[in-house]
Amino acid sequence: MPIQSPPGTLPSLPFLSPSAPSSSSPSSPSSGGLWDSVDGLHAWLDAHGAVDGREALLLRVLKLSEEVGEVAQAVIGATGQNPRKGTTHSWDDVGAELCDVALTALVALRSLTPDAGEVFTRHVAKVAARSLGQDAGAAGQERRAAPPSR
């Protein structure tokens, strides 16, 4: 049975609820909770999309551009670079918009292949090995700092 929700809104999905128990650590990109959510969003979009097939895939990829634009808008707002508007966003807003970009990319990847989790995990491992070499496993542990000075 498809999830019913008003047009233009996301449904209330238990796997997206902050209080829903997660079987995985939030730091693991291959964790079940993340990919269950990606699969659920993919299915929801398939059930509620105005188009399907190749056109739906192309539109999901194009959605990334929209989300990246929202990151730019949030950075401009967090730094107060628009003199007419002043400071309109926080760095938390920038972080939320970056999460939207990442999630949109993962849903687009899932639209491309049902093995999105495996494809993503293999790709991250290749990039980490190429960039970090032997230190790939420990990288990032010491870099949990605040955003750049404002």
Which range does the strand content fall in?
under 5%
Rg computed from alpha carbons, rounded to a whole number of angstroms: 18 Å
Main beta sheet strand tally, sense and closure = none
The low-confidence parts are 1-30
Helix content: 55-70%
What is the terminal-to-terminal distance?
Answer: 48 Å
- Content-based structural category: mainly alpha
**Number of strand segments:** 0
Characterization of this structure:
With 150 residues, the protein is an all-alpha fold. 55% of the residues lie in helices and 0% in strands. It has helices at 32-48, 53-79, 91-112, 116-132. Helix 1 packs across helix 3 (91-112) and helix 2 packs antiparallel against helix 3. It is flat. The relative contact order is 0.10.
Q: Summary?
A:
With 150 residues, this protein is an all-alpha fold.
SSE map:
Blueprint: H1 32-48, H2 53-79, H3 91-112, H4 116-132
Helix pairs in contact: 1-3, 2-3
What characteristics describe this protein?
150 residues, mainly alpha, 0% strand, flat
